[in-house]
Amino acid sequence: MLFSIYPTDDAATRRTVIEQVLAAAPEASGVERMLFTSLHMVDTGELAAFGDVLREAHDENGLTFCADVSPVALEHVVSGDEGWGWLARRGITMLRLDYGFDAGEIRRVADASGCRIAVNASTVDAAFLDELGGLSVVGWHNFYPRPETGLTAGFFVAQSQLFLDRGLPVVAFIPGERQLRAPLHLGLPTLEEHRHRNAWRTYLQLRRLVPTVTVVCAEGAVAGDHAAWIADFESSGTVTLPVVGLDAAASVLLHREWRLRVEDAAASFRLDETRGGVRPARIRNADLRERGSLQVDLDAYGRYRGEVHLMRTDRPLDAGQARLGEIAAPYRGIVDDLRPGQAVRLIPFSA
Questions:
Q1: In angstroms, rounded to a whole number, what is the distance separating the alpha carbons of residues 301 and 303?
Q2: pTM as predicted
Q3: Tens digits of per-residue pLDDT, 269-303?
């Protein structure tokens, strides 16, 4: 996952963000340490001061940047003594060109700057992308500060597909969980439904909707445990599931990887190789076998006894099954983002 810094961030926020970047992409990993930023300010003094911040981060930590830039700000940059070299010396290797740039201007900027080019994946159409044919652009979605203006999931997928059909990468934003950005401090999501939702769930949903999408924290930082689970998913593909209310006999399910069976069953995901392994110490069923709950087959199911099911939908109570626990409420929606054959790890929920 990528992160973002802005001229309006205070020094403490920038330090927190850079620490999360370095933790998510250690030097030995070889992963590019890129952040999103904005150069939309037009005052030359402000632009120069923020440029010094970028240069220090680039020189000291090897960070690179995708800079959202307006025609006016870009003209300020390239008209100075350093010319186009201003960008490279500050680690800016990608430019996001949105309003104010036509296809011809985008090609000229790409040639002159040597930077990769990102365009607004939330607004472009197929005809504009075809005008850029031959240029390896990135589809970088918008974020939406004003509540109720973010994208629907369907529109996000359709717009992303314009790029995927052309073999081009897609990038999208999730809101931060700390130090939310001005002017409204109400989150910066690409999808409206992600506003105020936790980062782990929003990240996984974007990765389900567009599996190859690169996810960017649009502001501030995310909670430390969420950042760690995201990093683990990106390195291993394992989904961390915090659980509560576990039966005493179900502790054997914790802190190890389980594989969801490859069959796409409608009612539940079955945890492979659990059969025969768990017998509940005490049966404490709820009103139904709820979506997100863990259920275990009892003796009534014969050779299936002990097999653990993660429920995908609400189902009536079954005398042949008993409740073992459930995914913690903030993460229960992740059930919708799981896929057969995926690896999961159950851990105790810690508020």
A1: 6
A2: 0.94
A3: 999 999 998 999 999 999 999 999 999 999 999 99
